[in-house]
Design a protein that fits this description.
Layout (H helix, E strand, L loop, with lengths): L4 H11 L4 E6 L6 E7 L8 H11 L13 E7 L3
Parallel strand pairs: 2-3
Antiparallel strand pairs: 1-2
């Protein structure tokens, strides 16, 4: 089952309302996306902590073979 880029962005924005969020559909199939999330809350966190926070915001959309989102290339960082 495919997911729309806007739904991914909305889920991330719910958790990180002040973030700069960019979603790119990599394959045009609604299953393979890239996301860049820039948020102040990531300052002093390592990349694993940042990415876990974003994956948590997706509320299970990537969980298991029945997840709506198959692949997400994720870039996270604090603002410069």
């Amino acid at each position: 089952m495919a997911i729309h880029a806007q739904e991914i962005e909305d889920l991330i924005r719910d958790a990180f309302p002040d973030a700069i969020v960019t979603i790119t559909d990599l394959a045009g199939d609604g299953n393979h996306y890239a996301a860049e999330v820039i948020d102040e809350s990531f300052r002093n966190q390592n990349r694993v902590q940042q990415q876990r926070a974003v994956y948590g915001a997706l509320k299970g959309k990537m969980d298991g073979p029945n997840g709506e989102l198959h692949a997400l290339a994720l870039t996270t960082k604090a603002p410069e």
